[in-house]
């Protein structure tokens, strides 16, 4: 297990913002949608819930590049094979898990087999020993023979992914001990060579069974057509890549903000076949003109095309009737992202607004000669000042590239006074980078402001280069870009103009890069300079602490060397002293820091650390919850401390913390919770300040909440909600190690409400108030639990930062303290009931994901029906049993419905029959009836069949329609041939039968019943409505059967 940890640390450290990522079918689909960072991504199939998997993305987007999916299982803990067992997986949806295996180009899992250990001096039993059968998720079997020695074996393809373990012999002490690695599945970026196209292609979509057509593209060129949509009516719609960050229809319509499309990464396009819209990478929809359904899509781009539509991939892109290729290559050069040249990158972006602005696809290289460093010195100013760099008559076009180790900083502030007044500011604080822009006609007019911001999960103080631009287009619309993301400045965005600086400039313009004149300094800077630009408002953003390069103003690159010389000459009393906390160049650590850790100055000074024991620059290992050892970052080496009473009471559970004058910047705890539910609120760890004042405490609740509470007002107040606490539900069966970090953030202003901590519980972020007290003591609380179930602490560390408001001295430095190692040193040898302190899963701590990875599960009793189809398919005994039970249940439900329906119908019939007869007899007249025998032409009166009926007349003449005859004067009506053909002699008991009469004939037959004698039976005609004429026919002309 230990040798695999770097793999997970690599995945963890390279994770970036995946918070707003939409679920897709696989890691490959995420990569083709522009996500090139390793991390945890959501995947989802049709009619399945969303699950999370670990994805490793390739750096370069070549078709032969490989996207990797990593899934872990409970078999990583190992199991002694005593009987048939089933392995649970971290991805608990087996529909998705099978799809990952089936779609992958190859899968691999390593099995470690350890034969039963012998007692000392005992001879090894002769082989063969009992064998073991391994059943995979896809139904393949692998047999471990009894004569196979201990060692490792590789499972590939469909055999990888062990689900069941079945030994030859049950409860044999000779059965092996089996451990499995994680499941690693690889998938080529291009699954089929025929789907990768360098040229043009036309797709006939008329035979598609899907609602959308999908393809991927990759380009580093802008201002070119992306695709042409051919509609069934003959119309065409051309979609263009415009100005790197936009999609347009080329008809003057407002373009759609997307992001850096021409960044050399793969992007996925989806075209609605009803002709309504297209979308990129699942983002906002670009509405198309209403020209009707799509019959054909033409694609030709300066780059590469990959057909990813399900219909195309199902046929390996060889359907010549659907796909027509243009063999002429459209891209014959290397992509900028793949360039290994040592000189500057030739790719540019936003060429309509900037001259040779480096593209985000260019790899950042240090030592280019135009970098400079800024610090927050308590006695010196820190910025680059540019005069006459802004004008109301020219479109705004500003840019810089920066990196910082601080969580807040001012990047740009500019102000101008000419025909109109205005100011612009770009800054970041926490995870939000904001641009604000304000204009007014003069000092007496109303200031109109616009703004927008772009979030980044891990914030901007990560010591990585970030390119920022703000510009205006030809329509006066303002935009902010941060690397590949873009937003438009609007009046409705949430931003605070109180955070913007303001000067006393009366004429001209000025642009400050990385800082402002925001502190009182005497005897260094000229009075006229101070009178124009000094603003000592502590509610504003602090100066940048970091490096800056590639500064652009008015769309052109700034010569920073000349700009600093001009600044020294116009602002300093003694220009030769160059008294600014700024210097050319950008220092780096002497060795490569681990991915995710910052290279930082050990003290707040630009000068070398003369007389100090520490180097000028070093890696901040606390970023990865690690410790510095001889210039490198190492993991915790001390043994875990159990929270069981028998462990801590052997010595003590209270430990002092060496007090420092530096700023406590971070606390981290890695712990495994008790593996059983608790009945009451159970404190685990207390952090005290100055005696018994609770600074923080960690506790668990009976509901399963892991809570971090800050400075409770009373010792018995256990709050679980923000802003005084952070909480997350954790299942007691989850035996993974959980990470809690408490990180101090830079406040805006001096009010106590502006001071806060960021608390992360397994990557879930909370903001809680900062009590501003010193940590002095840590106390472990004892848990009464069965042996080995109390939980444990595997790491506890502190990180201190230098105080940038204090003078530089050897004690005001950054430092990491290994508290757990100090505790174990003080405690000595202590009995521990925890052989291992939980399962290590660093991806559980990934920040910014919508759903974290689930637990690894357990190796449980054999349950083949739970996850796989039985042998024999639907004819297997279990399927037959399920079918019989289901059939019986459905039959009972159907029978119940029939009984209820019949009961309700009979009740309704009985209720309404008598009332209907009474109304018909009351409202309808008796009429004569004509009867014709079925046995011959003779006509007999109906009294022959109903001797007790009174005085019913018979007439042998059939009824005629109005077109041939008129109604008789006495309103005598005749029944149609359909009832004339009725032979009453066929009925022995006529009172038991009902004569059915056509509804539209307006004729009803009142039959005899139990409560009505036969003598009262009548054939009656319902009264016609007033709309009918007197001569309207009683029966229909078509003479349909009654």
Automatic annotation (TrEMBL):
Keywords: Membrane, Signal, Transmembrane, Transmembrane helix. It comes from the Eukaryota. Residues 373-586 form the Laminin G domain. This is Laminin G domain-containing protein. Residues 961-977 have a biased composition (Low complexity). Residues 956-982, 1021-1042 are annotated as: Disordered. Pfam families: ConA_BAM2. The chain crosses the membrane at residues 879-904. Residues 1-17 form the signal peptide. Gene3D superfamilies: 2.60.120.200.
């Amino acid at each position: 297990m230990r040798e695999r940890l770097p793999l997970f640390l690599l995945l963890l450290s390279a994770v970036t913002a995946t918070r707003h990522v939409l679920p897709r079918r696989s890691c490959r689909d995420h990569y083709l949608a522009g996500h090139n960072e390793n991390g945890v991504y959501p995947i989802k199939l049709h009619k399945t819930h969303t699950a999370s998997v670990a994805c490793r993305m390739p750096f370069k987007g070549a078709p032969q590049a490989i996207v990797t999916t990593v899934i872990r299982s409970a078999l990583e803990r190992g199991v002694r094979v005593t009987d048939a067992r089933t392995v649970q997986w971290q991805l608990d949806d087996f529909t998705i898990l099978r799809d990952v295996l089936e779609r992958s180009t190859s899968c691999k899992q390593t099995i470690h087999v350890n034969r039963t250990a012998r007692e000392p001096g005992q001879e090894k039993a002769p082989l063969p020993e009992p064998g073991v059968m391994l059943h995979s998720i896809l139904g393949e079997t692998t047999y471990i023979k009894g004569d196979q020695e201990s060692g490792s074996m590789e499972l590939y393809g469909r055999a990888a992914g062990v689900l069941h373990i079945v030994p030859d012999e049950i409860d044999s002490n000779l059965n092996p001990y089996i451990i499995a690695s994680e499941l690693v599945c690889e998938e080529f970026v291009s699954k089929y060579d025929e789907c990768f196209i360098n040229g043009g292609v036309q797709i006939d979509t008329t035979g598609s069974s899907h609602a959308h057509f999908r393809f991927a593209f990759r380009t580093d060129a802008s201002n070119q057509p992306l695709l042409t949509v051919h509609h069934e009516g003959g119309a065409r719609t051309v979609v263009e890549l415009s100005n790197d960050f936009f999609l347009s229809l080329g008809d003057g319509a407002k373009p759609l903000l997307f992001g850096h499309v021409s960044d050399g990464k793969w992007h996925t396009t989806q075209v609605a076949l009803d002709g309504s819209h297209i979308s990129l990478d699942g983002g906002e929809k670009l509405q198309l003109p209403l020209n009707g359904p799509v019959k054909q899509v033409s694609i030709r781009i300066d780059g590469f095309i990959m057909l990813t539509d399900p219909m195309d991939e199902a046929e390996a892109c060889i359907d010549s009737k659907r796909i027509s290729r243009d063999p002429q290559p459209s891209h014959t050069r290397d992509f900028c992202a793949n360039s290994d040249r040592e000189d500057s990158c030739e790719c540019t972006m936003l060429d309509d607004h900037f001259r040779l602005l480096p593209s985000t696809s260019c790899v950042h290289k240090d030592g280019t000669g135009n970098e400079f460093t800024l610090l927050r010195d308590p006695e010196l100013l820190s910025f680059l000042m540019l005069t006459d760099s802004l004008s109301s008559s020219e479109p705004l076009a500003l840019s810089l590239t920066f990196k910082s180790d601080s969580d807040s900083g001012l990047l740009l502030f500019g102000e101008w006074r000419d025909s109109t007044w205005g100011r612009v500011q770009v800054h970041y604080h926490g995870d939000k980078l904001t641009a604000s822009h304000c204009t007014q006609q003069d000092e007496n007019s109303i200031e109109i402001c616009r703004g927008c911001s772009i979030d980044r999960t891990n914030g901007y103080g990560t010591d990585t280069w970030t390119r920022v631009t703000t510009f205006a287009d030809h329509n006066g619309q303002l935009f902010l870009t941060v690397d590949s993301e873009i937003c438009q400045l609007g009046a409705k965005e949430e931003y605070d103009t109180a955070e913007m600086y303001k000067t006393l400039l009366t004429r001209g313009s000025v642009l400050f890069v990385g800082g402002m004149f925001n502190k009182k300094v005497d005897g260094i800077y000229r009075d006229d300079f101070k009178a124009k630009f000094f603003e000592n408002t502590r509610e504003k953003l602090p100066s940048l602490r970091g490096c800056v390069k590639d500064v652009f103003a008015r769309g052109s690159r700034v010569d920073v060397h000349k700009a600093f010389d001009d600044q020294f000459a116009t602002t300093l009393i003694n220009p030769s002293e160059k008294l600014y906390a700024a210097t050319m160049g950008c220092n780096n650590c002497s060795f490569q820091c681990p991915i995710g850790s910052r290279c930082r100055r050990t003290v707040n000074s630009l000068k070398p650390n003369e007389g100090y024991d520490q180097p000028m620059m070093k890696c901040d290992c606390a970023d990865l919850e690690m410790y510095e050892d001889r210039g490198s970052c190492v993991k915790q080496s001390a043994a875990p401390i159990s929270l069981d009473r028998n462990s801590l009471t052997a010595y003590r559970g209270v430990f002092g913390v060496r007090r420092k004058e530096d700023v406590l910047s971070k606390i981290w705890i890695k712990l495994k919770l008790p593996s059983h539910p608790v009945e009451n609120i159970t404190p685990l760890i207390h952090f005290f300040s100055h005696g018994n004042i609770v600074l923080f405490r960690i506790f668990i609740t009976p509901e399963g909440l892991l809570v971090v509470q800050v400075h409770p007002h009373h010792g018995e107040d256990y709050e679980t909600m923000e802003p005084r606490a952070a909480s997350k539900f954790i299942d007691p069966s989850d035996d993974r190690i959980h990470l809690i970090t408490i990180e101090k953030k830079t406040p805006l202003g001096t009010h106590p409400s502006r001071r806060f901590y960021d608390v992360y519980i397994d990557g879930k972020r909370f903001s809680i108030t900062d009590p501003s007290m010193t940590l002095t003591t840590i106390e472990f609380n004892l848990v009464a639990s069965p042996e080995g179930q109390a939980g444990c602490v595997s790491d506890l560390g502190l990180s201190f930062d230098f105080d940038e408001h204090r003078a530089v001295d050897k004690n005001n430095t950054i430092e990491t303290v290994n508290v757990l190692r100090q505790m174990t040193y003080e405690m000595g040898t202590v009995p521990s009931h925890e052989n291992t302190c939980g399962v290590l899963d660093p991806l559980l701590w990934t920040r910014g994901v919508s759903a974290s990875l689930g637990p690894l599960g357990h190796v449980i009793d054999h349950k083949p029906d739970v996850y796989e189809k039985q042998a024999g398919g639907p004819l297997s005994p279990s399927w037959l049993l399920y079918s019989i039970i289901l059939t019986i249940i459905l039959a009972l439900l159907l029978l119940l419905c029939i009984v209820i329906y019949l009961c309700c119908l009979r009740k309704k019939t009985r209720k309404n029959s008598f009332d209907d007869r009474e109304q018909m007899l009351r409202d309808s007249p008796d009429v004569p009836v004509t009867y014709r025998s079925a046995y011959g032409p003779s006509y007999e009166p109906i009294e022959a069949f109903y001797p007790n009926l009174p005085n019913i007349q018979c007439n042998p003449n059939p009824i005629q329609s109005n077109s041939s005859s008129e109604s008789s004067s006495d309103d005598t009506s005749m029944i149609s041939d359909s009832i004339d053909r009725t032979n009453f002699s066929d009925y022995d008991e006529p009172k038991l039968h009902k004569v059915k009469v056509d509804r539209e004939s307006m004729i009803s037959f009142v039959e005899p019943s139990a409560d009505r004698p036969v003598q009262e039976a009548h054939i009656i005609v319902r009264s016609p409505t007033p709309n009918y004429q007197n001569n309207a026919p009683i029966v229909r002309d078509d003479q349909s059967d009654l």
